[in-house]
Automatic annotation (TrEMBL):
Belongs to the sulfatase family. Its cofactor is Ca(2+). Keywords: Calcium, Glycoprotein, Hydrolase, Metal-binding, Signal. Residues 36-363 form the Sulfatase N-terminal domain. The lineage of its organism: Eukaryota, Metazoa, Ecdysozoa, Arthropoda, Hexapoda. InterPro entries: Alkaline_phosphatase_core_sf, ARSB, Sulfatase_CS, Sulfatase_N. This is Sulfatase N-terminal domain-containing protein. One of its GO terms (molecular function) is sulfuric ester hydrolase activity.
Length: 568
């Protein structure tokens, strides 16, 4: 019996006597409490500075904030710098360099996918009796049927195969030799779902999530992978799409693109409220783990291929870089078992950790059931009991084509200002995205409205389980702890470009989370140590499995204008 179960059952067992308990509950219901429902909400391209709990008062995210203030804000959680690699790492528990997926995302018409020899998260959870669903973005390949979500452990799918599609028309475009190829990309299981054209994507997925929860058989645990396409940019000419009423309600945001982006984030926040409320209605909330994260930082540079006007400020860099703004994800985890101790966690967690961590949370034994060569580390006990993270180092990536790499190591030293070191090799976007972008930060909270948090759907759902933090000062305190403020550090010099191409750069993240001061010349021994570790990782790298586009074979014109599986 694992510790969660013991904890969950102990008071009941004491009250009823354990035998009375087992006799009085149907077997399936008793089992359910051993296996919590797991909801992973993955936002797409959402920035560090686009959520309330990191100190921004610009975009209202009351539902996310309510869960964050009553759960564990994961302030030291790292992901991969772009979509496909993050999703591959989440699904496999392996660094993308061990999958050949460390490069740029899979593009439409590219005949590649997450290698099928790796067993992935929904398959593991299915082994433990879970019903498994994916809503939203897959982005791990679809050129052959064996790469599709339903062949990889999911019972149902409503979403897109590619990296994005229009929020109303579900069209995805790709430019090849100056020609724009356009195709429909929205599937219900394995059939094009034309009937949903015109419905706003974020609402479509949240409506479907509510339906899945309503129809869920009691007694069986559920894994819901809510991989929103929000808040990724849509296709060319209309990067940002949100219902006009919501956009209008945010008139105080002057920059019109940022305003539409904020509306997209706000719609995603609504969706989280709907989902939590549906779980409450089915009496599933008390037995559900909700993990929220963004797959990477926001493409806050306006010359990005798909800019979205998100903000990672004050963190350096953008999506696609190994700067903190690219890989440090706005994240939290909520579970009723945590409720007595909401906190801001500095526990060092990498996206690969979720496979073994959630497997253990689901009642599995990650020591005996999972491959020994996973890169992910089981963090369940660390999270549940607030113990030290078992991770001391995270490979951020090695991209052998771009010639970039990054690694973070935590040293076990008594001096808390000399523990966390990050080595960065190379440069990103040809040096165009090594700086700071989209500084929309306003002073800590003149506008931020705690009443809005207290009155949102998610918060009200939580009140049916326990008395959530109502004290404004408690929420404010967590918010302050979760906010990174580098104004006391070196002044922001927008022209300062660390040259990490010739020699690696070294940053001390304890004192300089915004990566303003390259300390490599002052700490040659630490540089050597981290660089050697990178070299060891380099030896286990699987070359990128990118393929030349398969056209015209994959052209949507051949498939009733849909991006379809094309190779049989
Ligand atoms: C690093 O070393 C240089 C001289 O080599 C010195 O000027 C600078 O103050 C040092 N920086 C820190 C943070 O110790
Ligand atoms: C082909 O596409 C149209 C929309 O352009 C759709 O209405 C129709 O159902 C599709 N046909 C098939 C066979 O899927």
């Amino acid at each position: 019996m694992n510790s969660v179960v013991r904890m969950a059952l102990a008071p009941v067992a004491a009250a009823l006597g354990v035998f009375a308990l087992l006799a009085s509950l149907p077997f399936a219901a008793a089992l359910q409490s051993f296996r919590p429902n797991i909801v992973v909400i993955l936002a797409d391209d959402m920035g560090w500075n686009d959520v309330g709990w990191h100190g921004s008062d610009q975009i209202p995210t009351p539902n996310l904030d309510a869960l964050a203030y009553n759960g564990i804000i994961l302030n030291n959680h790292y992901v991969q710098p772009v979509c496909t690699p993050s999703r591959a790492a989440l699904m496999t528990g392996r660094y993308p360099i061990h999958l050949g997926m460390q490069g740029s995302p899979i593009t439409p018409a590219e005949p590649t996918g997450l290698p099928t020899q790796f067993k992935i998260l929904p398959e593991y959870l299915r082994d433990l009796g879970y019903k498994t669903h994916i809503l939203g973005k897959w982005h791990l390949g679809y050129y052959r049927r064996q790469y599709l979500p339903l062949r990889r452990g999911f019972d149902s799918f409503l979403g897109v195969h590619n990296g994005y599609s229009g929020y109303y028309d579900y069209m995805a475009q790709w430019e090849v030799d100056g020609n724009l190829i356009t195709g429909f990309d929205l599937y219900k299981n394995e059939t094009p779902a034309w009937e949903n054209v015109g419905r706003y994507a974020t609402e479509l997925y949240s409506g479907e999530a509510v339906k899945l929860i309503k129809d869920h058989p009691t007694g069986e645990p559920m894994f819901l992978y809510m991989a929103h396409t929000g808040v990724h940019a849509s296709h060319r000419g209309r990067f940002l799409e949100a219902p006009q009423g919501r956009v209008n309600s945010l008139k105080y945001i002057i920059e019109p693109n940022r305003r539409t982006y904020a509306a997209m984030v706000s719609k995603l926040d609504d969706s989280v409220g709907e989902l939590v409320d549906a779980l409450r209605e089915r009496d599933m909330l008390s037995n559900t783990i909700i993990l929220f994260m963004s797959d990477n930082g926001a493409p806050a540079n306006l010359d990005a291929l798909y800019p979205n006007w998100g903000s990672n400020f004050p963190l350096r860099g953008v999506k696609g870089t190994l700067w903190e703004g690219g890989v440090r994800s706005p994240s939290f985890i909520w579970y009723s078992q945590f409720q007595t101790n909401p906190r801001v966690s500095d526990q060092f967690i990498h996206i690969t950790d979720w496979l073994p961590t959630l497997y253990t949370a689901a009642g599995g034994d990650s020591n005996t059931d999972l491959p020994v060569d996973l890169d992910g580390i089981d963090q369940w006990n660390a999270i549940l009991w607030n113990l030290a993270s078992r991770r001391f180092q995270a490979l951020l990536n090695i991209d052998e084509r771009e010639r970039s790499a990054g690694i973070i190591t935590k040293f076990d030293t008594p001096d808390p200002t000399r523990r966390t070191w990050k080595l960065v090799v190379g440069s990103f976007g040809r040096g165009n995205v090594d700086g700071f972008f989209n500084d929309v930060r306003s002073p800590l909270n003149p506008l931020y409205d705690y009443n809005r948090v207290i009155n949102c759907k998610a918060y009200r759902a939580l009140t049916t389980l326990f008395e959530p933090t109502t004290k404004e000062y408690k929420m404010a305190d967590m918010r302050r702890q979760a906010t990174i403020d580098c104004r006391d550090n070196a002044p922001l010099d927008r022209n300062f470009e660390p040259k990490c191409t010739e020699t690696p750069c070294l940053f001390n993240l304890d004192r300089d989370p915004c990566e303003k001061v390259d300390l490599a010349p002052n700490n040659t021994a630490i540089v050597a140590r981290l660089y050697n570790t990178l070299k060891v990782f380099r030896r286990s790298l699987v070359p990128q499995i990118h393929q030349p586009l398969d056209l015209p074979a994959a052209n949507p014109a051949r498939f009733n204008n849909t991006w379809s599986t094309w190779s049989f």
